[in-house]
Amino acid sequence: MDAKALHRVKADIANNKSVCSNCRQLELCMPANPSSDLLKNLDVLVSVKRHIKSGDVFYHTGTSFQGLYAVKSGFMKIENHHPDGRLQINGFYMMGEIFGFDGIATNEHVFTAVAIEDSEICLIPYDRIEQMGQEVERLKYHFYRLMSAEISRNYTMMMMLGSIQSEVRLATFLLNLSKRLQMRGYSHKDLLLCMSREEIGNYLGMKLETVSRIFSKFQAQGLLKVHIKNIEILDMQLLTALSNQHSS
Amino acid sequence: MDAKALHRVKADIANNKSVCSNCRQLELCMPANPSSDLLKNLDVLVSVKRHIKSGDVFYHTGTSFQGLYAVKSGFMKIENHHPDGRLQINGFYMMGEIFGFDGIATNEHVFTAVAIEDSEICLIPYDRIEQMGQEVERLKYHFYRLMSAEISRNYTMMMMLGSIQSEVRLATFLLNLSKRLQMRGYSHKDLLLCMSREEIGNYLGMKLETVSRIFSKFQAQGLLKVHIKNIEILDMQLLTALSNQHSS
DNA sequence: CGGCATCTTGAGTTGGGTCAATGGTCGTGG
DNA sequence: CCACGACCATTGACCCAACTCAAGATGCCG
After folding, report:
1. Is residue B118 part of a domain?
2. Count of domains forming chain A
3. Is the separation of the CB atoms in B155 and A111 below 8 Å?
């Protein structure tokens, strides 16, 4: 993240208090997203920056845990490769978001991190966080908060997967992406998906055909303009209403 | 699952094929479960013990966050009361397990904790954990691990909800309970469910009728003996194989 | 005993999965 | 520059697991 973008993010976060009073669900859906405070301190911690190409594995099951990772640029996905061959995508992480929590419990990563765009990833060494003294006590506190946010996000995701119909899930997914892009100063109406229909479907617990069908339906209803990976949100209000409509 | 599929599972067992000895999925399904080390140290921290009656709310959305809670006796559930009236049960917590992570991020609880049995709950004050010095550094480390485990558990739950059929989910749920009971020295074959069919269904993302039907089916297949809330596991091996069979 | 909540079971419906055919887009090499 | 092939997305037809609605059955408690 360059300085200007960083500044923008900070401003967005600062303004965030007044924004969004109603849609808690969406908030909870956000991946770990450091506060500006933490971001400032993070520079101290970040030791290594790694470039990674789209499609490459960043860490996989069994990789020893060294710390959390911040996405500096690009796009990552975390997937769970189940022993029986099944695969579940747990989340997508964009610029400024933090992933890698799956390694803390066992000291090695349980899941697999894969780039879905050329990306730059910064290591936030865990031992250094752990061993720091009083002066960064607050920083450590933030890490609790990050993890807690991750937990909340997952609960929401569980609810989505457990009891909400596909159209609502996809609408919520799009709004979530939109909001995260907006927070980073990008357009919240023109989304460039960097994941395939299959990846979206896997993440949301549905088949790629279903994703495609719903995109078509939304387009027919005038909610979206869909052209492959370019999605333009035409009726934000309606999409939001749909996303909040959790019972049919 | 039809008779043919059941037969296939049996054949697999005979061939010692899918009887996964390590069974990571189940492990990951466990709620936060402190090590004996941590439990020992916990006594230092625990300040308040509260009794609560079955059905009573322990904390709810908006309750200010004071710390994590350990279940000393009884049974708790955590539910997400969504603004639109919908409700999702996020987890069940039994003796010796820790809940309350949902309050860390915002300093107030996001979810609702309700007793489903008369219970004793111990507060583990958060500020005291935070402010402790070096000597309990390891203790703090354990808390990271607890949270990380909670995250992993939820990812597994997400996978279950997203792409696994109801029978397998219910089988996994029963085995999870069985294992947790066994770890506490109780029988792992005789389960006394303290939650209703509706609560189980809500947690597992299915309707109460579906839960009931599957119980009946499992009984007909000789897997279980079901009498309302008393469940006796008759064929542990087959149930385990079923739980590991994530693709139909 | 009756009233109430929970559980079971049946019948019919449907959302989303499966399978399969077609259409678009993009990168590569002639 | 076009042609080819690989890959991804779209769309249709069909099917089934799980939902809904509804009627009983069972257990619990005053």
Report:
1. yes
2. 2
3. yes
B152: nearest CB among A25, A88, A102: A102
**Range list of β-strands (E), A67-223:** 67-73, 75-81, 87-94, 98-99, 112-115, 119-125, 190-192
What domain range is B69 assigned to? 3-148
Average pLDDT over residues B198-218: 97
CA B101 to CA A161: how far, in whole Å? 21
Which of A113, A93, A114, A111 has the alpha carbon at shortest distance from A31? A93
Q: Do B158 and A22 touch (CB under 8 A)?
A: no
| Residue in the block written with tokens 């390694």 | A103
Contact A216, A226 (CB under 8 A): yes
Residue in A closest to B205 by C-alpha: A162
Are B171 and B239 a contacting pair, CB within 8 Å? yes
Same domain for A131 and A204: no
Q: Assign residue B185 the CATH number of its domain.
A: 1.10.10.10
Do A127 and A178 belong together in one domain?
no
Strand order in the sheet with A49-52: A49-52, A119-125, A67-73, A98-99
State pLDDT tens for residues B97-142.
Answer: 889 888 887 889 989 999 999 999 999 887 766 665 444 555 666 7
Residues 6+ apart with CB under 8 A from B186: none
A149 close to B (CB below 8 A): yes
In a domain, B153, yes or no: no
Entry pTM:
0.84
The answer to whether A209 CB is within 7 Å of strand C is: yes
Amino acid letter, residue A31: P
How close B193 comes to chain A (CA, Å)?
Answer: 21
Which residues, other chains included, contact B15 with Cβ-Cβ below 8 Å and sequence gap of 6+?
none
Contacts of B50 (CB under 8 A, 6+ apart): B58, B120, B121, B122, B123
| B10 and B114 housed in the same domain | yes
pLDDT tens-place values along chain A, 248 residues long? 333 333 333 333 333 322 222 233 444 456 766 665 555 555 656 667 899 999 999 999 999 999 889 999 999 999 988 877 788 999 999 998 889 888 877 889 989 999 999 999 999 887 766 655 444 555 566 777 778 888 878 888 888 888 889 999 999 999 999 999 999 999 999 999 999 999 999 999 999 999 999 999 999 999 999 999 999 999 999 999 999 876 43
Same domain, A105 and A54: yes
Alpha-carbon span B160 to B221, nearest angstrom: 23
Per DSSP, the three-state class of B232 is: strand
